[in-house]
Structures are given as structure tokens and as C-alpha cells.
């Protein structure tokens, strides 16, 4: 598997009433699809998908909807907070 297709990050779902997860996630998927897929895989109930946003807690980056991780300076070890 090519290193550039996935990254190792911590995904923080605490705003949704869930936990933090250390995951290997795809970088080329739009943020909205990524959040939906993660929530379904982790069996996390989501209420309003009209606001699919990720904030990096260690960098000043806010991603939403059609943004992709590969287009921003997101790297292994970053913490992604699901808003």
C-alpha cells in the first residue's frame, strides 16, 4: 500500500458524545464522506451531516465538506477534532 494514500491520526469524536480514536485514514476522500464513513464504521450516531467539519487541534486548519486532507498540511500524528 502506498504511503501517500493514508495517514495515521487521532480522530476526536468527543463533540458527538463518543471517544478519541487512533486511526489510519484515507487522505483523498472528501471530508464529508470521511466523517460519514468513520461514524458508520465506529457505530457513532450522527445527527446533522449538513455541518461536516474537522478542526486540527495542533494547527490552525479547518476543513469541511469537499475539502480533502491531501490538499492541506495534515500529517501523521495530527489530532482531528470532529465538530
Average predicted confidence as pLDDT: 92
**Biggest sheet: strands, sense, closure?**
5 strands, mixed
CATH arch. level architecture: Roll
Broad structural category: alpha+beta
Q: What order do the SSEs take from the amino end to the carboxyl end, as H and E?
A: EEHEEE
Examine the coordinates and then state which fold CATH places here, giving the name of the CATH topology. Answer: Ubiquitin-like (UB roll)
- Low-confidence runs (pLDDT<50, min 5 residues)? none
Strand order of the largest sheet: 2-1-5-3-4
Percentage of residues in strands: 25-35%
Family: Belongs to the EsaB family.
Protein name: Secretion accessory protein EsaB/YukD
InterPro entries: EsaB (IPR014921), YukD-like (IPR024962)
Pfam family, one: YukD
Structural notes for this entry:
This protein is α+β, with helices and mostly antiparallel strands. The chain has one domain: Phosphatidylinositol 3-kinase Catalytic Subunit, Chain A, domain 1 (Ubiquitin-like (UB roll), Roll), CATH 3.10.20. The protein has 1 helix and 5 strands, in the order ββαβββ. Strands 2-1-5-3-4 form a 5-stranded mixed beta sheet. The protein is globular. The model has no long low-confidence stretch (mean pLDDT 92). Belongs to the EsaB family. This is Secretion accessory protein EsaB/YukD. Pfam families: YukD.
Topology (SSEs and partners):
Elements: E1 6-12, E2 20-26, H1 31-41, E3 53-56, E4 62-64, E5 79-82
Parallel strand pairs: 1-5
Antiparallel strand pairs: 1-2, 3-4, 3-5
Q: Features of this protein?
A:
83 residues, alpha+beta, Ubiquitin-like (UB roll), 5 strands, 13% helix, Secretion accessory protein EsaB/YukD, YukD-like
Amino acid at each position: 500500500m502506498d504511503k501517500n494514500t493514508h495517514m495515521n491520526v487521532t480522530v476526536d469524536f468527543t463533540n458527538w458524545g463518543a471517544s478519541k480514536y487512533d486511526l489510519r485514514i484515507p487522505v483523498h476522500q472528501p471530508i464529508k464522506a470521511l466523517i460519514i464513513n468513520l461514524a458508520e464504521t465506529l457505530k457513532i450516531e450522527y445527527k446533522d451531516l449538513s455541518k461536516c467539519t474537522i478542526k486540527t487541534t495542533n494547527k490552525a486548519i479547518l476543513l469541511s465538506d469537499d475539502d480533502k486532507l491531501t490538499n492541506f498540511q495534515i500529517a501523521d500524528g495530527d489530532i482531528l477534532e470532529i465538530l
